[in-house]
Write a structure and sequence with these properties.
The complex is a heterodimer. Chain A is an alpha+beta fold. Chain A is built from 5 helices and 9 strands; from the N terminus they run βαββαββαββαββα. Helices cover 31% and strands 38% of the residues of chain A. Chain B has a 6-stranded parallel sheet with strand order 3-2-4-5-7-6, sandwiched between helices. The chains are: A alpha+beta, B alpha/beta. The complex binds thiamine diphosphate and magnesium ion.
C-alpha cells in the first residue's frame, strides 16, 4: 500500500442525463474525497470527459477505478497521476485596486502570466490559467491588495505526447461478453 | 438464462402500445411470473398484462413484491421481476432492492412514473425513484417514450444477470406506457460501450496462485456466494479433494460446498464455528473464492489471518483490496478460474494441518447443544436440528434475520446450492415470508420451509394472505422467543442486560393462521416437534407452527463486532447442578456429566 496522495483521473463517460450524478454519488457513498471535478464535452459526439482530482492511496486508487467501471455509463478511466501531463485550471480574481496600486498589480500579473480582463476605478479582475499551485501562489501575492471575490475551475488534465495513449480510449469497443 | 416463451404470436413490426411492448419484452426474456401491486401510474401496464401469458402475484405490500422477486431469483438462478406504481409503491420496494443489491441478486423492478410532462413538478405520487435507487441498484433507467421500452428491458435483464448480478430499476412514465409505436425486437447480443462484465484472469496471477497453493502447509479455502452463482461447486470439490484443502463457508456460501463433505469445516465469522475461525487465524494461505471479506467474517482487520498469504478469486474488481489487502488478486468467474487451477494444483495430504484442525474441534463440539437430552425445554437449535433431520436436509430453507437465522446456519446442513435463502449483506428483517413465496414459484416441487422470528414475521406477516390467495404451500417455522432475540442477546452481552425495546408482545399466531384459513400449530416441548413437522408436511396448504422456544437463549460462539476473530465468546459450560437447586444453566441440565 502507498501513502494517500493527490490523484488525477480522466474519466470518459456517455453524454447522458444523470451521468455526473452517478459519478458524484459513487465518490460520496464510497467516501472517496473529491478535491475537484470538471466535466466537459469532447470532440467526439456522445462522449464527455471528466477530470477528477482526489486523495487516495494506491489500493484506493485502484478501487476508485474499478468502481467507476461498474457504472454502466462510464466508458474509460485513466489514472493519469503518474503519467506526464499538462494540467490546467482557470481562475478569475477580483482585487480592490485604486489608481496608485494598479501598476504594481499589473507587474505581479506579468510575473505569473496572468492577465487583467476587467478594470474599474476601484477594481481589477485578473484571469489566470495554470496549474493549481501556481494559481494559489498568485492568490497569496494578491491577498494584501484585498481580494473581493474569486472563482476557480477544477483542474483539467491531459497526458503529454503519445498518440498511443490518446487513441487507447476515444472509440471504446464494447467487448463481447460470455455471460449473455 | 430465462427460457423464451415460444407460444406468443409474433407481433414484431406491429404498432403496439408501450404497455404491450413492456410485456412483449418481458415474455421474450422468459418471464412467466411477476410480483406486484397496481396503482395509477402503472395502470396501463396492468391493463395490457392480461393479454400475455404472465402470472401476476398480488402482494400485500410492495416490499413483499421486491423480496418475492429476490427469493424467486435466488431459488431459480433466473432474473426475478417485481412491479409497482410510482411514488409510495416504488419507495416501498426500496428495502427489497437494497437487499438484492448487497447480496448480488439479479432482479428487474418495473415502476410506473407520472407522465413525462409532469416530471419535476411534484405531481401526485411523483418520486424521483431513479434518484432514490441510484446507490442501491446495479443500474437504473428512466423511460419516457414507448420506443425506448423494448431495448431498455432487454438491456436491464442483461445488466441484471451478467457479471456480478444485481437489481435494475426501470421507471416508465405513464405516457410512455400509453403511446403507440412499432414494436421492434432484436435478439443480437447486447453491446454496451461502457459495460464489460467479463474478465480474464492474468497468467502471472494464475501462476502465482498455483505456486502458493502448491507450497502451502496450512491452507484454508473460502467458499462464498460467488461459487453457487458461478456453478462452481463441482470443480471446487474436485480441487479440494485433490489438494486436501479444508473449506470454510460464508453465510451465503452455505450449500455451495456440501456441508456433509469431510473437508467442510463449517461457517466462518461472527457466529461461525470456533475451530473454523481458529484455523483461519493459523493458516498460511487463504484461497477466497466468490466472497468479499465482509466485516461479519473478518472481525478486527488488524489481527485478521496474520500469517496467511491471500488469494482472492472474485468477479468484481472493485472488491479487490477493499477490506483486506490480498497478495494475489484474480479477477474472474469462480468456475473458470478453478477449472484453470485444478490441473495445475498438485495432490497433497496436509495430514498434520487437518489433524490440528480436528483437535481444535474437540472442546467446542462438546458445547454443542443439539445432541443434548430432552428435558422438556424447547430450544431453537433443537427445533432447527430436528427440522434438518426430518426433512433430510433437502428442503429449501428461507430464513429471516436474527438469532434463528444463525441457528439455521449452524444446525441445518445444506448439501446443495440455492437451498438456503437468506438476507446476508443487508440483514433485512421481514425478508423470509415474501422471499419464500418467490422461491415457491421458482421451485414448485421442493418443500419450502420458512424459518422466521416473532419480530421479523410481524414485519411482513400480511403476505400470509398472499399465500392463501395464491393457494400455495409453505411451511412456516416461527421461532417465537418473545424477544427481538438477537438485539436482546447484544443487550445481555454488551449493554449491561438492559432489555430496552426488545420484549415483544405478539398476537396469538395460531389464531392468526386460523383467521387466514390456514392451519396453525403450537409446539412447546421438544417431544412435539416431529409430529408437528410431519403434520405440516402432510397438510396441503400453508401451515404455520408457533414454536415457543426458550426466551433468553443466545447464539454461541460469537465474535463481538470488531473483535479479533479468534476471540470468541463460548457457550458457558456450567457443570450439572445438584438435584433440587435451580442455579444452573438450563441448557446443560442433563443430570449427568455428558462430557
Ligand atoms: C428491518 C430491520 N430492522 C431492524 C433490524 C435489527 N435487528 C437485527 S436482528 C433483530 C431481532 C430479530 O428478532 P426476531 O425476528 O424475533 O428474531 P430472533 O432474533 O428473536 O430470532 C433486529 C431488531 C434488522 N436486521 N432489520
Ligand atoms: Mg424473536
Amino acid at each position: 500500500m502507498t501513502e494517500a496522495a493527490s490523484r488525477t483521473f480522466a474519466i470518459f463517460v456517455e453524454d447522458k442525463p444523470g451521468v455526473l450524478n452517478r459519478v458524484a454519488s459513487l465518490f460520496r457513498r464510497r467516501s472517496f474525497n473529491i478535491h475537484s471535478l470538471n466535466v466537459s464535452t469532447t470532440h467526439e459526439p456522445g462522449v464527455s470527459r471528466m477530470t477528477v482530482v482526489c486523495e487516495a492511496d494506491g489500493d484506493t486508487a485502484k478501487r476508485i477505478e474499478a468502481n467507476l467501471y461498474k457504472l454502466v455509463n462510464v466508458l474509460w478511466v485513466d489514472d493519469i497521476t503518474h503519467a506526464p501531463t499538462v494540467e490546467r485550471a482557470l481562475a478569475l480574481i477580483k482585487v480592490r485596486v485604486g489608481r496608485d496600486a494598479r501598476a504594481e498589480v499589473l507587474r505581479v500579473c506579468e510575473v505569473f502570466g496572468a492577465r487583467p480582463v476587467d478594470l474599474s476605478l476601484e477594481t481589477m479582475t485578473v484571469e489566470m490559467t495554470g496549474p493549481e499551485d501556481h494559481i494559489q501562489s498568485l492568490v497569496d501575492v494578491l491577498r494584501p491588495f484585498e481580494i473581493l471575490e474569486m472563482v476557480q475551475t477544477g483542474a483539467v488534465a491531459m497526458t503529454r505526447g503519445s498518440v498511443e495513449r490518446a487513441q487507447s480510449h476515444p472509440t471504446i469497443p464494447a467487448r463481447r461478453t460470455h455471460a449473455a | 438464462m430465462n427460457q423464451p416463451n415460444t407460444e406468443l404470436p409474433n407481433r414484431v413490426g406491429e404498432p403496439l402500445q408501450g404497455a404491450q411492448i413492456l410485456w412483449e419484452a418481458l415474455v421474450r426474456e422468459g418471464v412467466d411470473v411477476v410480483f406486484g401491486y397496481p396503482g395509477g401510474a402503472i395502470m396501463p401496464a396492468y391493463d395490457a398484462m392480461i393479454q400475455y401469458p404472465i402470472h401476476h402475484v398480488l402482494t400485500r405490500h410492495e416490499q413483499g413484491a421486491s423480496h418475492m422477486a429476490d427469493g424467486y431469483a435466488r431459488a431459480s438462478g433466473k432474473v426475478g421481476v417485481c412491479v409497482s406504481t410510482s411514488g409510495p409503491g416504488a419507495t416501498n420496494m426500496v428495502t427489497g432492492i437494497a437487499t438484492a443489491m448487497l447480496d448480488s441478486v439479479p432482479m428487474v423492478c418495473i415502476t410506473g412514473q407520472v407522465p413525462s410532462a409532469l416530471i419535476g413538478t411534484d405531481a401526485f405520487q411523483e418520486t424521483d425513484i431513479t434518484g432514490v435507487t441510484l446507490p442501491i441498484t446495479k443500474h437504473n433507467y428512466l423511460v419516457t417514450r414507448a420506443e425506448q421500452i423494448a431495448d431498455t428491458i432487454r438491456e436491464a435483464f442483461y445488466v441484471a444477470r451478467s457479471g456480478r448480478p444485481g437489481p435494475v430499476v426501470v421507471d416508465i412514465t405513464k405516457d410512455a406506457q400509453q403511446q403507440r409505436c412499432t414494436f421492434e425486437w432484436s435478439d443480437a447480443p447486447i453491446e454496451l460501450p461502457g459495460y464489460r462484465p467479463d474478465y480474464t484472469p492474468l497468467d502471472s496471477q494464475m501462476d502465482e496462485a498455483v505456486r502458493l497453493i502448491n507450497e502451502a502447509k496450512r491452507p484454508v479455502l473460502f467458499c462464498g456466494h460467488g461459487v453457487s452463482e458461478a456453478g462452481a461447486t463441482e470443480v471446487l470439490t474436485a480441487l479440494v479433494e485433490k489438494a486436501q484443502i479444508p473449506v470454510a463457508c460464508t453465510l451465503l456460501g452455505l450449500g455451495a460446498f456440501p456441508a456433509s463433505h469431510p473437508k467442510n469445516l463449517g461457517m466462518m465469522g461472527m457466529h461461525g464455528e470456533s475451530w473454523v475461525n481458529a484455523a483461519i487465524q493459523k493458516a498460511d494461505l487463504l484461497i477466497a473464492v466468490g466472497m468479499r471479506f465482509d466485516d461479519r467474517v473478518t472481525g478486527n482487520l488488524k489481527t485478521y489471518a496474520p500469517t496467511a498469504k491471500k488469494i482472492h478469486v472474485e468477479l468484481d474488481p472493485a472488491e479487490i483490496h477493499k477490506n483486506v489487502h490480498v497478495d494475489v488478486p484474480i479477477v474472474g468467474d469462480a468456475r473458470d478460474v478453478l477449472e484453470q487451477l485444478l490441473p495445475r494444483v498438485e495432490p497433497r495430504e496436509h495430514a498434520e494441518w487437518l489433524a490440528h484442525i480436528d483437535a481444535l474441534k474437540g472442546d467446542s463440539a462438546v458445547r454443542d447443544i443439539k445432541d443434548l437430552p430432552d428435558l422438556g425445554k424447547l430450544y431453537a437449535a433443537h427445533v432447527i436440528h430436528d427440522l434438518y433431520r426430518l426433512t433430510k436436509g433437502e428442503a429449501i430453507i428461507v430464513t429471516d434475520v436474527g438469532q434463528h437465522q444463525m441457528w439455521e446456519a449452524q444446525y441445518y446442513k445444506h448439501d446443495l446450492p440455492r437451498k438456503l435463502i437468506t438476507s446476508g449483506g443487508l440483514g433485512t428483517m421481514g425478508f423470509a415470508l415474501p422471499a419464500a413465496i418467490g422461491a415457491r414459484f421458482a421451485k414448485r416441487d421442493d418443500a419450502v420451509w420458512v424459518i422466521v422470528g416473532d419480530g421479523g414475521f410481524q414485519m411482513t406477516a400480511c403476505e400470509l394472505a398472499t399465500c392463501v390467495q395464491e393457494g400455495i404451500k409453505l411451511n412456516i417455522a416461527l421461532i417465537n422467543n418473545g424477544f427481538l432475540g438477537m438485539v436482546r442477546q447484544w443487550q445481555e452481552f454488551f449493554f449491561g442486560g438492559r432489555y430496552v425495546a426488545t420484549p415483544l408482545h405478539s398476537p396469538d399466531f395460531v389464531k392468526l393462521a386460523d383467521a387466514h384459513g390456514i392451519k396453525g400449530l403450537r409446539v412447546t416441548q421438544r417431544a412435539e416437534v416431529e409430529a408437528a413437522v410431519r403434520e405440516a408436511e402432510a397438510t396441503p396448504g400453508t401451515v404455520l407452527i408457533d414454536f415457543r422456544v426458550e426466551q433468553e437463549d443466545s447464539v454461541y460462539p460469537m465474535v463481538p463486532a470488531g473483535a479479533d476473530l479468534h476471540d470468541m465468546i463460548q457457550r458457558p459450560y456450567t457443570p450439572p447442578a445438584a438435584p433440587g437447586t435451580t442455579d444452573h444453566n438450563p441448557i446443560f441440565e442433563t443430570g449427568e456429566d455428558d462430557r
